[in-house]
């Protein structure tokens, strides 16, 4: 049932170097094989010159003549900790190796690339499962790339690559949601589910950035006309997005996890269940006048440990608050609007959007030494009676006004009189 084997050893670092010395015709496919694994797991492979000491060394050396053993990987590791010290991959030069672009039929020999992927699989800690349909099977087969179980096994050890797909999260693969997550796939495939499925398993899994992020219920919850038209029928809504919504410039703006995090009763009832949160808003929350007040990025930006752990991952921030942050009594002190309003260059570059401000802070501002306390919304309101009439005591509205209009009008937040 589980078609992967873990050898019990693994790299204890995030960046693993490799070098190859041998026939240059094979160099490119070795690079591709490393890049394939690199895009699947949270391990970075960097190539170094063969004159430099590397973690993994690859080359050709006679093993047992034609056929039999095609290659092997010898991995040195600490018995006590399982930490890998180094690994050597050897390919047998006696094989009739076939390169991917040679046009030769597999009947005439053995494809080199899948064997390289297989051997690298050994150097990261994968063994031989008893399943002829996976690339880590002990005997050469026609499997061209790592399959679900190969990836699952490797991600058990290292986790998924930041920009890749976590296959453990795919309980039921939905080709429509996959297509809807990527504009180029919408254009190429429309609602052709078979084409979407094939693209995912053969290509998308191995490309950076091909996560499945689209959730039909969140799309519905983003627009009142869609709520009336589709209710909680996420599948029909996903079809609508692929056929019309995408081309009308619609986008998903409703974040179910932020909505849940905004309401204690929903957090208790739904946890981090995105579908349940979005469905609640569509069928109940919108009629109860419930808002999303929690902002995942602002929450992360309020705590240095969360910044280190989550970066600009909105969903991770909301999930942390739902399960941990509330219990720890954490709250959001970073204000994305105030941050933008603190800097003239940001005011000119951005609209009055708290997400944009918080994302800039997390991605760049923090390193640039910027802070979010350079704007005094209270004093700004106190300075202008027309703003007090318009905004009352709403400090966020006043800050947004400063960003969109006030700054350009020459208004100020210093004490005027
Ligand atoms: Zn093997």
Quick take:
Helices cover 45% and strands 8% of the residues. The chain is α/β, with parallel strands linked by helices and 417 residues long.
CATH class of the domain at 15-162: Alpha Beta
Structure class: alpha/beta
Oligomeric state of the chains present here: single chain
Question: How much helix, percentage-wise, in residues?
Answer: 40-55%
Low-confidence stretches: none
Strand share of the residues?
A: 5-15%
Fourth-level CATH superfamily of the domain at 15-162: Collagenase (Catalytic Domain)
Biggest sheet: strands side by side, in what order? 2-1-3-5-4
By DSSP (H or I, 4+ residues per run), the number of helices equals 21
Overall body shape: elongated
- Report the C-alpha radius of gyration, rounded: 27 Å
